[in-house]
Design a protein that fits this description.
The protein has 733 residues and is mainly β. Among the domains are: 152 residues, no CATH class; 337 residues, no CATH class. 5% of the residues lie in helices and 22% in strands. Strand 21 and strand 22 form a beta hairpin.
Length: 733
């Protein structure tokens, strides 16, 4: 694991000065000695002969105290330079957040990797005599595979201040790789701040420099994504996801004191065994085996780096002619409109820049090669929903309301493919045409929901009843006399069998697929200790509505996200009952996504709390904090609420953190008993993975379970393409 380096230098001073640099000089026992106590002569160098001595190793003398100006908010960068309230001192500069993979503890940035006062997390202090080794308190640094230098545990393989051994510092601009100072990071790592990081598994630099995973919350970095478990055949070793088949630090298994598996300094890990030589067609470079026939940083031999205009082919750096060759392999030649075919001012990774890419705001690059960049590129950065009618029956309008403004052809050659919407349809859960057109709408506001949308000016509503609030028309309102709450049945009726339908868009593929522990085959998903998967006639989808979207993903996108706000009249009385209205977002790709596959049943509407999987619906209120918009006193007390809306002891005390104020005028608000007729989740974010430049199909569907009474509704908005692969699922972030 590659961790922060500059903080370790500061810790050399902190080992004798404490967090804010108060010096302990000599044996006077005085924690705040004056200058005369430094040396017998009273000189600052502590010597009567005038010989120089650094009285603040790793820090700076500010008045009578030694300060760590890299992290001290009262002396940030220099003596007396104080940071404002709310700011931290990070790398000698005042900032709102900590950089370099460090963590904000109090008003200071520290490395919880080796700080004995904040070991693994803020305020977790090690006992007297213990050290902090890779975020764990231990008796020796060796327990974490590190070495004690000046009282602090450091990784001498990567620490620029202690590279190879204590106090062996690298020159400015160089990094420490395998205990050697060098200009380039090797072994598939990249330079992050002053060290080399493997962004595929470094929780402090996950996917990119300074992107930290929530290690204290149980997250690990796997395939460049913060997630709760290691994927892609990797194994969790000391909190890091590694490939034990090739990792020299964990070769064949995790390296522990009881079962050491680390290879020797001159060995590599090949097929899970330490060896002195690499396998066929691979070359040993440091502790890694590389294919020097095509590695641009080791072309034909270790350390042979090809220039930006060159490509490593057959072990030789060859100048590529963009006029006749697709030099970056992205499918476009210069003649096809590719404005970036080699690394340079257009970006370090030219394969991500071409006419099929989506514009990335703020990177200063014309990502989609249309001659415009960032906010000046209105094609990719401007919403398109302002003029959409609330009762539109045009399916493509619902894509626009979500934020999908571009269209694409279905069968063009690669050089002509751009990202965008290929197809949109409004359907039932079995893939048949939607009958009741009041089940969907496009709105700029829904009751008192705040914010009313997350992109542009309008959002999509899909409902098992009427897609509106209690005040709206075209369609609406959703409360129809004599009912006092949303309780409508689709007209014409639309109960469909999702176990026996034949349409290619029917959700039968989801229903018949098991995805343990979330759902069994031919059953509905089940929350932990809440409800049954075979309850409520699971094969019948009542009052269903589905929005199908077929898109081509941008060539620089590996994932997408969409926001949703779920509201239901089934809450709170029917939490953990047979009446558990379903809300799904199913994702289909031509082949499994890499490096992180989507769920086997294709459904992204589930929440992983680190202990179990929760299907998104009213049952998340039984054990998570995701059902936020409700009245807790009413929701948990069976004696409160009107008939059919009584409280339920299954509702967790974690619910209703936002109160019921947002339900006003939605139709789900307070009734004559002063208790709401339902509840909502607040805005959630659902993410899934795609294949760059390829087709992806989404099926967003909601339906009534058990009967056609008591409506549920999903408000949808904020579709976005994501540049990095993601951990599939839904959360409230």
């Amino acid at each position: 694991m590659n961790h922060t380096r500059w903080m370790r230098a500061a810790k050399l001073a902190l080992a004798t000065t404490g967090l804010f640099g108060v010096a302990w000089v000599g044996c006077t026992g005085n924690p705040n000695p004056d200058i005369s106590a430094v040396g017998s002569s009273g000189s600052l160098n502590g010597s009567s002969s005038g010989a120089s001595m650094d009285v603040c190793p790793g820090g700076k003398l500010c008045g009578t105290n030694c300060a760590s100006v890299q992290i001290d908010p009262k002396n940030c960068g220099d003596c007396g330079k104080a940071c404002a309230d709310g700011q931290v001192c990070s790398q000698g500069a005042c900032a709102l957040s900590c950089a370099g993979g460090t963590t904000k503890c109090g008003q200071s940035c520290t490395s919880t990797d080796n700080d004995p006062k904040n070991c693994g997390m803020c305020d977790k202090a090690c006992a007297m005599g213990e050290v902090c080794a890779k975020g764990q308190c231990a008796l020796t640094c060796e327990a974490g595979g590190t070495k004690q230098c000046s009282g602090v545990c450091v990784d001498t393989k990567q620490d620029v201040k202690n590279c190879g051994d204590c106090d062996k510092a690298c020159d400015p601009g160089k990094v420490c790789v395998d205990g050697n100072c060098q200009l380039e990071c090797a072994g598939g790592t990249q330079k992050c701040n002053s060290g080399c990081a493997d962004v595929k598994n470094d929780p402090n630099n996950c996917g990119m420099c300074d992107k930290k995973c929530d290690v204290a919350g149980g997250e690990v970095c796997s395939a460049g994504v913060c997630t709760f478990s290691c994927i892609g055949g990797t194994t969790k070793c000391n909190g890091i996801c590694v490939d034990t088949m090739v990792d020299p630090g964990n070769c064949g298994g995790c390296n522990t004191a009881m079962t050491p598996t680390a290879c020797k300094k001159d060995e590599v890990c090949s097929a899970g065994k330490c060896a002195s030589v690499c396998g066929a067609n691979l070359t040993k470079c440091g502790n890694f085996c590389l294919d020097t026939s095509q590695d641009n940083k080791n072309c034909g031999g270790c350390g042979v780096v090809c220039k930006n205009i060159e490509k490593c082919q057959a072990g030789k750096c060859t100048v590529c002619d963009s006029n006749v060759t697709d030099c970056d392999g992205d499918g476009w030649k210069k003649a096809d409109g590719d404005c970036c075919d080699a690394p340079g001012s257009c970006g370090a990774d030219p394969a991500l820049v071409n006419p099929g890419a989506v514009e990335v705001l703020g990177n200063g690059i014309d990502d989609n090669c249309n001659g415009k960049q960032d906010f000046f590129d209105f094609l990719d950065t401007t919403s398109c929903d302002a003029q959409l009618a609330s009762n539109s029956n045009t399916a493509t309008d619902y894509a626009k309301a979500l934020g999908i403004c571009r269209t694409a052809g279905p069968a063009l050659p690669l050089s002509g493919k751009t990202w965008g919407l290929i197809e949109a349809q409004l359907l039932r859960a079995d893939g048949s045409a939607l009958g009741d057109m009041t089940a969907k709408s496009i709105r700029n506001i829904v009751g008192n929901l705040q914010p009313a949308n997350t992109e542009g000016q309008k959002a999509v509503l899909l409902s098992t009843g009427i897609a509106s609030d209690k005040t709206q028309n075209n369609p609406g309102p959703n409360v129809v006399f004599p009912s006092t709450f949303p309780n409508n049945t689709h007209n014409p009726g639309s109960t469909v069998d999702i176990s026996a339908c034949n349409s290619a868009l029917c959700i039968k593929d989801w229903f018949t697929t098991a995805n343990a522990p979330l759902k069994a085959a031919n059953q509905l998903p089940v929350a932990p200790n809440c409800g049954k998967g075979d309850a409520g006639q699971p094969t019948k989808a009542n009052d269903s509505v589905m929005l199908e979207l077929k898109l081509r993903a941008p060539t620089n996108a590996k994932a997408f996200s969409i926001n949703s706000y779920f509201i239901s009249t089934e809450f709170p009385q029917y939490v953990c009952s047979d009446f558990n209205d379903q809300f799904l977002v199913l994702v289909d790709t031509p082949k499994p996504t890499s490096p992180i596959p989507n769920p086997v049943d294709k459904n992204l509407m589930f929440f992983n709390d680190g202990k179990g999987l929760w299907p998104i619906g009213i049952n998340i209120a039984a054990g998570t904090a995701l059902f936020n918009v409700c009245d807790l006193a009413c929701a948990t007390d069976p004696t409160k609420g009107s008939v059919g809306h009584a409280g339920n002891k299954s509702v967790s005390a974690q619910s209703c953190s936002l109160g019921a104020g947002q339900l006003v005028n939605t139709g789900w608000g307070a009734n004559s008993t002063a208790c709401p007729d339902g509840g909502g989740s607040f805005w959630l974010t659902t993410s899934g993975n795609v294949i760059p430049g390829d087709v992806v199909t989404l099926r967003i569907v909601i339906w009534d379970v058990g009967d056609t009474n008591y409506d549920s509704m999903a408000v949808l908005d904020g579709f976005k393409w994501l540049l990095n692969a993601t951990s599939p699922g839904t959360d409230d972030k």
